[in-house]
Amino acid sequence: MRKIFDFLKKNILVILISFGLGGFVGFKVLESLGIAYFMSSLGDSLPKGSIADKDAFLETLPEGQSLIQKELIPVEKKAKNIILLISDGMSLSQVSTYRLLKGGPNERISVDKFPISGIVLTHSEDAIVTDSASSATAFSTGKKTNNGALGLDKDRKVLENFTEIIDKHGYVSSLISTSEITHATPAAYASHVDLRWKTDEISLQMMDSDVMTILGGGRHFFMPEKMGGKRSDDLNLLEFIKTSHTILTKKTDMDGFDHFNKGKVVGLFADEALRDKETPENHSLEPTSSEMLNFALKRSEQFISNDCKGFFIMVEGSQVDWAGHANDLNYLKREMKDFDEVVNKALNFAKSDQETLVIVTADHETGGLLIEPATPTNYTAPEVKFSFNTGLGYGSHTGVPVPVYAYGPGSENFTGTLDNTDIFFAMIEALEMDNMSGSCVN
Ligand SMILES: [Zn+2]
């Protein structure tokens, strides 16, 4: 039996509960440190304000509780395909903020069009506040693990992941990310390492996996340091995989791609993350998330027209998290826009195809984003204030739950309260898994 709080035997856990500032707490403490944003009548000017230290409480949590797995509804009409979209760092405050910035409180964004929604609890094996590696492992394997670990349990035992399992059942997989593809969320579907920072190892394992299409940034993680890359093992992995993979380096390479090519494809559209501030000259060569999804859909359909039973595509909007860490509202808006567009694309595909389960969720919240009246005691003023409320300028992950939205066959299991590990089991339940037909891509 799994015990999620084993670590408490050795450690005293404290949780820091930061108060959002209500009228009684006193808004004046907002004003000396940190960053807040003010939006006047939902306009465009976003001057910086500040946040001060806040009242906080430390709590010790109970020991020895075991994880309760959600009882799933048996899915009668199975999904042929799954598109899983993960916005790193997005909880309801990020969703709400984007809705307000896009068009105001009556605006409706892509996730608002989903018929099914639920709540996902995000703690990891060894902490209440998860990192992206352990939560991605929960989604990809159905097991809790320690923060920092990918595809391994807390005892470093290898956990079979979703793409490995469904490969044996004749499904083809793709991974898409707006960060470097070796980053935690995509890596949890194609590697097994004890620490997410071991990117030399992660990239090798990903290239060796059954995943046929991997798109994102991260060229430097395939190049040795002496060539300006980030590999400490001196391997020129780009050169090494040239014979086994088609390497795409700019978005027009996707347009010119011959979809009868059934080999592995890796798209490395930036040195590190897409839309990196350091490399503005490259941005015209980089695809959006929607363009990458479009390419993966075309490839997947071609695989299905051959031998594959269906497809799985994971898309990560990686930088909503980074915007939260940076306490940067304009950055958040830009990344939420990119994610909103790719969610719309996935939903429209599923609506016309009627055989695809689309799931939208997040690994955790980042930044403690608050939406308050600009003057905390005045609920009638039209101004709204957005502020990040962790770490005094270094926004961290928080322990609040995140939303999940679902559409299509099997979506009935994504309601109520789910643990993040339940997402894995609900995806397995959605697919036809009785017949182990073997890999369709090897
Ligand atoms: Zn983060």
What does this structure look like?
The chain has 442 residues and is α/β, with parallel strands linked by helices. The chain has one domain: Alkaline Phosphatase, subunit A (3-Layer(aba) Sandwich), CATH 3.40.720.10. It has 11 helices and 17 strands. It has a 10-stranded mixed beta sheet with strand order 8-9-7-6-10-4-11-16-5-17, sandwiched between helices. A 3-stranded antiparallel beta sheet has the order 2-14-13, covered by helices on one side. The longest helix has 25 residues. The N terminus is likely disordered. The site of zinc ion has 6 residues, from helix 9.
Task: Write the SSE topology.
Layout: E1 15-18, E2 36-39, E3 56-59, E4 81-87, H1 92-103, E5 116-121, H2 132-141, H3 162-167, E6 171-180, H4 184-187, H5 199-208, E7 213-217, H6 237-241, E8 245-248, H7 251-255, E9 264-268, H8 289-306, E10 310-317, H9 319-325, H10 329-353, E11 356-361, E12 365-366, E13 370-373, E14 384-387, E15 397-398, E16 402-407, E17 416-419, H11 420-430
Parallel strand pairs: 4-10, 4-11, 5-17, 6-7, 6-10, 7-9, 8-9
Antiparallel strand pairs: 1-3, 2-14, 5-16, 11-16, 12-15, 13-14
Helix pairs in contact: 1-10, 2-11, 8-10, 9-10
Bound molecules: zinc ion.
Residues 89, 132, 321, 325, 366, 397 line the site of zinc ion.
